[in-house]
Prior knowledge:
336 residues; alpha/beta; 10-stranded mixed beta sheet; 11 helices; binds 1,4-dihydronicotinamide adenine dinucleotide
Amino acid sequence: MSTHTVTLIPGDGIGPEVAEAAVRAVAASGARVEWDTVEAGAGALARTGQVLPDQVLQSVERTRVALKGPVTTPIGGGFASVNVALRKHFELYANFRPVRALPGVQTRFSDLNLDMVIFRENTEDLYAGLEHEVVPGVVESLKIITEKASLRISRFAFGYARREGRKKISVIHKANIMKLSDGLFLRCARTAAAEVPEIRHEELIVDNTCLQLVMRPEIFDVLLLENLYGDIVSDLCAGLVGGLGLVPAANLGDTHAIFEAVHGSAPSIAGQNVANPTALMQSAVLLLRHLNEREAATRLEQAILRVYADGQVRTRDLGGSATTTQFTDAVVAAMG
Length: 336
Ligand code: NAI
């Protein structure tokens, strides 16, 4: 069995706690992973003066794959997002977020056994960060949508749907208002849809999508969205299955991949050993599949499912009292 070298970016806030949990879970899965641990984010800034030190880029360049904890991004000023920088630098154009109900997790929608996949364009839109003050009191923020990026994410999503036997893709937009930008995205999605006729394709306006998601989430299968809509709708979807502590994500490009949770650094619960590490553990499952460590991935995935089905060990976000460490112990034990 070969050993894989993977970059580990523990991140800020609850990042180091959930990263430690995921590392323990991967070790117990039987996969041979050697971690190259590097620091990025607010912690790195305080210690090294750089929010995204060159060492991080060099490590990911070398290993081509990373597991990343959340990184704090200051609001309304300060440094630009490390996440956006990493996604742009490595051209991680597809943000893949499977949203699945877990056994025994009670939500308003538990009886529906939800299973959706979100594809979020990851490199442009309002996240291009092109903002300037035109005159005092007037700010312009540019929404960039290109044919290249829109086609690339659309083909990625439709290709995935075909490979995985999915039934339908909902393309989400606001082309009634942003006729040019969202209109272009929509046209690219239609091009990709025409190449995969076996997958049903529908188009939904983003506000109506939010309504449908909370009224009838079971009608959704795969969702394809631009960057900003994808960001917002992902958190909404996480809420449908029990919250941000549960949902994983993968930032995928043609050559590199970074796996992380959907959630952020949750500063209000950082350092208390109460964060739910499931989301990053589930991201580690995606990482193991990416490394072709299928058995280890299934072992870890099944262990997480068993702990939830068993119902004894729950972290605080799900109404339990287990610590991050105790939850991790339970997952590790379930693999034993
Ligand atoms: P957040 O995701 O950190 O927190 C939202 C809510 O969910 C909070 O109540 C938090 O306690 C809870 N939560 C999140 N993850 C949890 C977990 N694993 N277990 C239990 N509860 C959990 O979002 P927020 O507060 O908007 O952002 C905090 C910081 O994180 C900001 O600086 C933001 O920029 C950054 N962020 C980073 C991301 C990344 O690195 N990929 C993604 C999203 C936000």
